[in-house]
Amino acid sequence: QVQLVESGGGLVQAGGSLRLSCAASGRTFSSYAMGWLRQAPGKEREFVAGISWTSNTYYGGSVKGRFTISRDNAKNMVYLQMNSLKPEDTAVYYCAAARGTYYNGRYYEVADFGSWGQGTQVTVSS
Prior knowledge:
Blueprint: E1 4-7, E2 10-13, E3 18-24, E4 32-39, E5 46-51, E6 57-59, E7 67-72, E8 77-82, E9 91-101, E10 113-116, E11 120-125
Parallel strand pairs: 2-11
Antiparallel strand pairs: 1-3, 3-8, 4-5, 4-9, 5-6, 7-8, 9-10, 9-11
């Protein structure tokens, strides 16, 4: 499993933007699908966005059209650009690596991901 470290969270007003970053370790980073998931207090974990090793993307319905996931394999980095933020986006955001590699690495639901980072708090005020 790879090690993941998130950064970029903070407090923003509704309608604002944030860009989250995830630094991953390991020479096999490019073979893993990656994702962003979130969890708010008292709520279930929610899939936010995923990106395959070929850079195909998949988004949860609540963020589609507002968030964009991307990756830079040369730098072992994954990003989540969050625009038009809403108070309901408030949560701890986690970067995660898929359980499998290449075509075995699914990336469109919470259970598809294994290694998780420590999380970064995103708070959106109204």
